[in-house]
Amino acid sequence: MTSLSIEEHTVTDRASGPYAITTGPDGALWYTLVHAGRIGRLVPGGEPTSHRIDPACGPTIITSGPDGALWFTAYRTHRIGRITTDGVVDEFPLPSGCGPFGIAAGPDGALWFTETAANRIGRITTDGRVTEFPLPVTGAFPSAIAAGDDDGLWFTLNQTNAVGRIGTDGAVTLHPLPTEAAAPVGITAGRDGVLWFVEIAAGQIGRITTDGRITEFPLPDRAARPHAVAIDGNGTPWFTEWGANRVGSLAPDGTVAVHDLPTPGSEPHGIALGPDGAMWTALETGALARVAPAADDG
């Protein structure tokens, strides 16, 4: 097994809560500070900076948009936010109480997002026009969302134990999970035309093909509470174990490898492939952790 180097980089105080992370078009890491109402930026090897937004908004998931800006969900104030790479912020209001959470760029030049409290999938154009699509179930708590290579958007339904797909025409298909009460959360597109997702309550990693075939991979620690998943430069899925203070990866043969984070109780949430080729994860206790083969560091 390849040995890993895991380095923690403090980016804020313990109360601010780094939550989600992505690589921006400017070659920097961008991350949400969910408890501080700020968006952070870190160029690997540099010093962190952050931009203030509404302190009460609860910025959650962040992604690169088709317009060269970063887009994020403001869960507590029910808005979609946009921030340019030089820090200019715009926010677009949504219906009250909808609870936007996941967001991803779609194949149609718009951003698509989940409304956890309203059982809807939303679409917002880069000039702020919003369309909403109701789901055919109630109490579903749609969570993360990702663009597949089939021109659809794929999302997790945390409370109805399914993975869904919505086409750009608004047509929705649901795929129930084999494991009951698995509570899927994070989802991401793989390099081989499949989607990968995590089952936070079942302690499993899931794989779904675009025709709906699902495979589940149990983790060594079923109580680890996997939270987010991302793909590295080789196409390998990496995930965070929020409840066990670890990150892990899944080999093509289904073998799972997990790695302890240096600081106990660091609460890893989001994970992303960084601009330096390493995996980076957001630790809610105030840091970003860089995960790479030890050889990368000489």
Describe this structure in words.
This protein has a single domain (4-297), classed as Methylamine Dehydrogenase, Chain H (7 Propeller), CATH 2.130.10. The radius of gyration is 18 Å and the shape is globular. The strands form seven sheets. A four-stranded antiparallel beta sheet has the order 1-28-27-26, with no helix packed on it. It has a four-stranded antiparallel beta sheet with strand order 2-3-4-5, with no helix packed on it. It has a four-stranded antiparallel beta sheet with strand order 6-7-8-9, with no helix packed on it. Helices cover 0% and strands 52% of the residues. With 298 residues, it is mostly beta strands. It contains no helices and 28 strands.
Explain the layout of strands and helices.
Blueprint: E1 4-10, E2 18-23, E3 29-33, E4 38-42, E5 49-52, E6 59-64, E7 70-74, E8 79-83, E9 89-93, E10 100-105, E11 111-115, E12 120-124, E13 130-134, E14 142-147, E15 152-157, E16 162-167, E17 172-176, E18 184-189, E19 194-199, E20 204-209, E21 214-218, E22 226-231, E23 237-241, E24 246-250, E25 256-260, E26 268-273, E27 279-283, E28 287-293
Antiparallel strand pairs: 1-28, 2-3, 3-4, 4-5, 6-7, 7-8, 8-9, 10-11, 11-12, 12-13, 14-15, 15-16, 16-17, 18-19, 19-20, 20-21, 22-23, 23-24, 24-25, 26-27, 27-28
Binding site for substrate: 227
Binding site for Mg(2+): 267, 284
Enzyme class: lyase
Question: What attributes does this structure have?
Answer:
mainly beta; Methylamine Dehydrogenase, Chain H; 28 strands; 52% strand; globular; carbon-oxygen lyase activity
